[in-house]
Amino acid sequence: MPTTTATRSVEEKKRLVRRLAGDGRGFAERYGFRVTNNPSQLFQVLYLAVLLARRGDFHRAVDAATALRDAGWDSAARMARSRHADRVRVLRDAGLRGDLPALADTLGDLARTLVETYRGDLRRLRTTAHQDPAGERRLLTALPGVDDEVADLFLREAQALWREAAPVADRRALAAARRLGLGRSAADLAGLAGGGESERLSWLVGALARVDLERRYAEVTG
Fold first, then answer.
1. Half-sphere exposure for 206 (CA within 13 Å, toward CB)
2. Cβ(190)–Cβ(201) below 8 Å
3. How far apart are CA 112 and CA 159, in angstroms?
4. Hey, which end of the chain has fewer CB within 10 Å, N or C?
5. Phi and psi of 7, rounded to 5°?
6. Contact (Cβ atoms closer than 8 angstroms) between residue 212 and residue 182
């Protein structure tokens, strides 16, 4: 695996971007979480982001998010009504480790706050922020369990719909971009994805995040 940033021509960069974004799916959709402007699905993407931000095997985070959804907690209202002990059990059965009671508390608090503040609908958060990216991030990080890293992971996916939020790239996507010679910032990636193409950008940064998490550099550059 190369230890220095690759040097690529503009055409080489564009070819690589086409390969990476070619399946037309972002990170969440690659693992079975649809990204649509639907309150339940936006909430699922948010708690997937909370789980992915924890240190550890990202596959377990995806498995845990899937298990929460399969348990019937696919909306903020349903998660808010769930029992703490049941959330702990589902997280443990999905293979998560660490302080699961605290994590279950966070997920419950997140759901209840969304219900109480935005009627369980993240689109209302966007409206409250007047579709201002800084305002959206500020309101997101005011939610229980949502720090800047979680906000990055959520907005990485949501920018396909919330176009004003673009460009967003999480730390994993940026690490891969640097290693692959595609740039050092979300703006660099947006330029390669095409100006104004926030959906394509979300596909690209999701693919880059997968490359870094799965250590697939040799496959991509081969």
1. 28
2. yes
3. 24
4. C
5. -105, 120
6. no
